[in-house]
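Dear Dr. H.,

I hope your travels went smoothly. While you were away I took the liberty of generating a structure for the chain from your last submission, since the lab meeting agenda had it listed for discussion. I wanted you to have the full record in hand beforehand rather than looking at slides cold. The sequence, exactly as received, is reproduced here:
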Amino acid sequence: MKKFILFIVLSIFVIDFINGQITDYEKELRKKNKDSLSGWKINGLTSINFSQSSLINWAAGGQNNISANGLISFSANYLKNKNSWDNSLDIGYGMFIEGKENLRKTDDRIELFSKYGREISKNLYMSSLLTFKTQMTPGYNYPNDSVLISDFMSPAYLHIAAGIDYKPVDFITAFVSPITGKFTFVTNQTLADSGSFGVEPAIYDSFGNIITKGKNTRAEMGGYIRIALNKDITDNITLKTKLDLFSNYLHKPQNLDVDAEILLSMKITKFITANFYAQIIYDDDVIIEIDSNNDGIIDKKGPRMQFKEIFGIGFSYKFDNKK
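The corresponding predicted structure, in token form, is as follows:
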């Protein structure tokens, strides 16, 4: 509980600090000559959502709980003459505590994206792309919080691609690459030894001793498609969504890796916003263990669709350089 309260206090401080810095940054941008930002479209969103419930002698049952989720989403896109350069950074983190259970996280992601293109025809760009995704803190197989299943840089995913980018309007892009390198990193050796996230597992002797450690990286070559939309639907509603598809040419190319995200931000007042975030992931190389009876025994395992959804109302601040 103390850790959670500390997290909330620090979150409020961080959001307040960021908002202050953003406000100063906005003022600085507006003081500059307009030509210095010509071609740039800069926007961002910071938010933190809280929820809490307390029950005493409640006949219907239930548990006391507290939760908090924070989000930072920033983009800086350049489009001028024949040059296009899109950049974004998304960070999300959430925690909750229920009853006497230990603190658990509900969200944990760092996503970095950069794409540069040179126009070769109307709305068509020869482009190169880089994406990087990982998390900040360890993840556990709850309710057993002693079983580590993920960690910082375990996994981490890096895509490096070259291809064609289609931009019919400034808020939609469709990128297609026939040659893409996908790299998976698992720096936690325990997870690497178990073959987590598709890396090559350790080799053991008949006594259970490790002969060869598990690989910390996995490289794949394949085709890649990324479709993205980032638009202010109204002055108070912003929609940001993207779809990533990857096919490994050398191993089961028919089994596509899928990563789809949507963020819908609805402004209620100047500093109060409702945020809806959802993500669907399917990776044929990520094995999910299933305990269908909740008896502590794994009944089956294999690749599965992963789904995450977060909805919250809380403090937020949005900025851009339109004004």
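Two observations you may find useful: The domain at 2-52+67-317 is CATH 2.40.230 (Outer membrane phospholipase (ompla); Chain C). The chain has two helices and 18 strands.

With kind regards,
E. W.
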